Amino acid sequence: MSLFKNFFFLIAGPLIKVKIPKDNDGKSKQFAFVNFKHEVSVPYALNLLNGVRLYGRQLNIQFRAGRNLHFILFVFMV
């Protein structure tokens, strides 16, 4: 997860949190929620990283409105 988190931080800006859900066996579900500190980071990351290949898989990135003024991207690896 730290590589994934560092990838987004270095590319788009400071993060509040990265959450990568796991299944019952403890394996990654191949998607993540990325919370950015600054609103301007969201469209920048969306435009720059959507479709990029990471770990041999293409990133499909969508904006999700967050709670408590968090700016969230939903990242799905296909």
TrEMBL record:
One of its GO terms (biological process) is regulation of alternative mRNA splicing, via spliceosome. GO terms for cellular component: nucleoplasm. One of its GO terms (molecular function) is single-stranded RNA binding. Pfam families: RRM_1 (PF00076). Its main location: nucleus. SMART domains: RRM (SM00360). It is found in: Nucleus, Nucleoplasm. Keywords: Nucleus, RNA-binding. InterPro entries: NEXT_complex_subunit, Nucleotide-bd_a/b_plait_sf, RBD_domain_sf, RRM_dom. Residues 1-66 form the RRM domain. It comes from the Eukaryota. The keyword Nucleus applies. PANTHER family: RNA BINDING MOTIF RBM PROTEIN -RELATED (PTHR13798), RNA-BINDING PROTEIN 7-RELATED (PTHR13798:SF11). This is RRM domain-containing protein.
